[in-house]
Amino acid sequence: MKWMKFRIKTTVDAEDVIISALYDIGLEGAQIEDKVPLTALEKEQMFVDILPDGPEDDGIAYLSFFVEEKEDGSLELNGAATDRDTIVSQIEAELEDLRMFMEIGEGAISVTETEDIDWINNWKQYFHQFYIDDLLVIPSWEEVKEEDKGKKILHIDPGTAFGTGMHETTQLCIRQIRKFLTEETELLDVGTGSGILAILALMYGARHAVGTDLDPCAVEAVAQNMEANGIPAESFRMMIGNIITDKDVQDDVGYGCYDIVVANILADVLVPLTPVIVNQLKEGGIYITSGIIDTKEQEVREAIEAAGLTVMEVTYQGEWVSVTARK
């Protein structure tokens, strides 16, 4: 199997923003190369206390995105045929837009080919058990330590679907869900990915959850993670489809029947999602959003208020923002 590799030279400060921007055009799963020293938490997750000194951080970062080549050498992005030059042009356009409001560095793009990348398993060497407040998140290939037995534990394997709980946006959502959850909660998770948010809500006592996603890989990931956490099949209904544009999906999800709707997606998706999803919320229901880079906070707030929702709370972690509102 061959992959086309698109590598961008940028700055450490621009990493998250560029990754978010290029996600919109279909480039996902960025490989990040920089010289930023590991934090104490990252060392703990790697079971390392002392590392040899590395090169001094120079503020430069390289982001690599991979697109699978078909047998005939053609490329596909977002389900549509494309080619190398078109993707480069799309990346260049996104980078130029970002230059208007932030420093992204050189922005040079290089394109190469690589073969036989084991995406499914190679990432596992970087994902180890960790805590989100008092919750222990642990993958299937690690054992629960003796001192952690009896604690609240979430077993999560994202596989090829997004969502391990390590990202700031997921943690922001988890804290807000726990704050508003009751035993009567009916929860809708838009862009459910690995199912982590809905599964966690059920573990903390929600009555029922529904998840939607565009990626068919989410179905298997959710099923495996439900089983790993002892979630009964009837407690979580999963469907594939675009709730923003597909009326059949909207009808199937249901109207006015959710106490909490959570959407950990990018700001550019939250803006068109919000006026649609408000119809799924009960009166008094809670809308929890994240995936919002700080430069997009006002845009999302305005979309939420324009949909008739009242902003209750805005929380922050790193460069990321969560906005919680009530219908």
What does this structure look like?
The structure is a single chain. With 327 residues, the protein is α/β, with parallel strands linked by helices. It folds into two domains: 109 residues, Alpha-Beta Plaits; 203 residues, Rossmann fold (3-Layer(aba) Sandwich), CATH 3.40.50. It is 29% helix and 30% strand. The strands form four sheets. Strands 12-11-10-13-14-16-15 form a seven-stranded mixed beta sheet, sandwiched between helices. Helix 9 links the parallel strand 13 and strand 14. Helix 1 packs across helix 3. The longest helix is centred in the N-terminal third of the chain and has 16 residues. The radius of gyration is 20 Å and the shape is globular. The protein starts with a strand and ends with a strand.
Describe, in short, the structure shown:
With 327 residues, this protein is of the alpha/beta class. It is built from 10 helices and 16 strands.
